[in-house]
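README, section 4: Worked example with a bound small molecule

Sections 1 through 3 covered apo chains. Here we extend the same pipeline to holo records, where the ligand is supplied as SMILES alongside the sequence. The molecule in this example is calcium ion. Nothing else about the input changes; the structure line simply encodes the ligand pose together with the chain.
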Amino acid sequence: MKILNTVLIALSLTLLISCAENNKKAKSETTKQESMPDNAHRPTPPRGEDQRTPCEALKEGPTGSSEHGPMDNADGNRDGTVLREELEAFMEVGEYRRVTILNYFDQFDTDKDGKLSDTEFAKVTPNFSFNGTDANGDCVVTREEVMAYANEEGRSYRKIGLDKFFDLVDTNKDNKATPEEIEAAHQSGLLARF
Ligand SMILES: [Ca+2]
Ligand SMILES: [Ca+2]
Ligand SMILES: [Ca+2]
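The generated complex, written as structure tokens:
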């Protein structure tokens, strides 16, 4: 009887210990999974807008800009010449391009404290309007940052708006910015290369 008892106790102990071990293992695996990034199990697609957090986009700005920046982006049919109509359509989907980025900031900084609170930022349309302005990467857009962004060399369209900028590029005033006119804008320092 005594021997049977001892065997039973020993068996129970072994069971208990193995349960505890299993628990520990399961827990450590959970921790390992939790500490892995969300996309660790997914294949990595090319890095694009949707791969970034809103804060990253706010700091880094647009991805995949081609050589002529906004002049490429406004060129709807990609034939190298930007028509006034194409520019209009481009400004329609991003009002900040027309009114200048600083004026746009002021429209949304309703309490005039020089920065966009989360509530203020939530009203910004399109939500990528200020991408690239958050120089210090704290995920808060300040008026100073927007001003510095607008003053970057060769980016005067941010300061004067794309409409006026187009007038400067379209030197013969035929409402078309041709590849030659765009190249001349690069040469004169009006438009930086991207
Ligand atoms: Ca504010
Ligand atoms: Ca900031
Ligand atoms: Ca022209």
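What to look for in the output: The chain has two domains: 2-41, 65-187. Strands lie at 82-83, 176-177.

Section 5 describes how to batch many such records.
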